[in-house]
Amino acid sequence: MSRFPITLARHIIEKQAAHPTATGEFSALMTQIGLVGKMIARDLRRAGLIDILGMTGEINVQGEAVKKLDEIANETFIRVFQHSGLVCALASEEMEHPLRLSENWPHGKYMLLFDPLDGSSNTDNNMPLGAIFSVLRHEGHEGLPSESELVCQGTKQVAAGYLMYGSSTVLVFTVGQGVHGFTLDPGVGEFFLSHENIRMPAKGSVYCANDGNYYKWPKETQRLLDYLKALDTPSGRPYSARYSGCLAADVHRLLLAGGIYFYPGETGKPEGKLRLLYEANPLAMVVEGAGGRASTGVMPILEVKPKGLHQRVPLFIGSRDEVTLAEQFIQGQR
Q: Is there a cis peptide before residue 106, judged by omega within 30 degrees of 0?
């Protein structure tokens, strides 16, 4: 008789049982993130039928045009957590300042930062989309957290992960003790464990980068790409190019098969495009939990001391060997 598949809820309960002091709040939080994934996946399946594609006409704090699905995904996170009693503050790409949840205080011990719809440029084209999240613990006892309390190093994260919406809906997360992936069975309405204890290959054969921006890149990054594309069979080159426009989807590919993703600084944007607190930090925690690496090119992502909620950062993330190679190029050692 085949073993009954492990649900997200069962997996969380079993892990919680190994910690006698656990109160169950964190387990409930992860279950709620699964609910967010189900709700957004439902909306995406019907997107072309219920007039939720296209732009809202608004501009977000990042200076980017807001798509309808950006707004819907952000509101879904808020609605799921607003009266959950689990989190005392929410912060996202779509909100200039954190949303402090007085209705969850003093019970909510956690703070949730998220990119509600990663790769939103893909929304009108039926291409991969995702969501990225970072969980912090609120250490204060005298009231709701200030914005500065959410602006902290990635080493302070207690959990991180992403949802990916593609041919299937996948939830991948870590609490610092292994990286696990769950796939949604839409017929049952449940996430089942599909990727247990994911380990990223130390070396891959794929690079993910928007090399249409090649001439905006620093010469060190140009040289890295030239190296990856050069023909040299003994070293496994050239690498294959894969770039979806969705960070979570590209990192998911690399997590399973190896390789490197990079989005460097550019002319006029030396800090790059990606946000540290709710894109780079959580993905760095996941990738490093699976044996990979994440770097700015000069230092580990998780060691960057942030200065603002929406701070951007160059990102080189993926297999250990490729990220080490990228650092050597960026630092002029090759």
A: yes
What's residue 300's pLDDT?
98
Listed in sequence order, the residues at least 6 apart from 196 whose beta carbon sits closer than 8 Å to its beta carbon are: 180, 181
Q: In what order do the strands lie in the sheet with 240-241?
A: 240-241, 206-208, 260-263, 315-318, 293-295
For residue 136, the cross-strand partners are 111
Global pTM value: 0.93
d(CA 86, CA 24): 10
Helices 247-257/281-289 angle, 10° precision = 10
* Number of domains within the chain: 2
**pLDDT digit string, tens, across residues 141-172:** 778 999 999 999 999 999 999 999 988 999 99
Q: Of 162, 195, 228, at which residue does a domain stop?
A: 195
- Where is average pLDDT lowest: 184-188, 310-314, 318-322? 184-188
* Structural domain that includes position 70: 8-195
What is the strand order of the sheet 129-137 is part of? 99-100, 87-92, 110-118, 129-137, 159-165, 169-174, 179-185, 190-195
CA distances from 52 to 62, 127, 128 (A): 21, 15, 16
Does one domain contain both 185 and 217?
Answer: no
Q: How far apart are CA 324 and CA 321, in angstroms?
A: 5
180 compared with 67, residue with greater pLDDT: 180
CB 313 within 8 Å of CB 301: yes
Asked whether 117 and 95 are in contact (CB, 8 A), the reply is no
| Residue 249 pLDDT greater than 80, yes or no | yes
Q: What is the DSSP letter of 276?
A: I
Instruction: Decide if 200 is inside a domain.
Output: no
Asked if pLDDT for residue 22 goes beyond 70, the answer is no
Decide the pairing of beta strands 110-118 and 87-92: parallel
Amino acid at residue number 42: R
Under DSSP, the state recorded for 21 is T
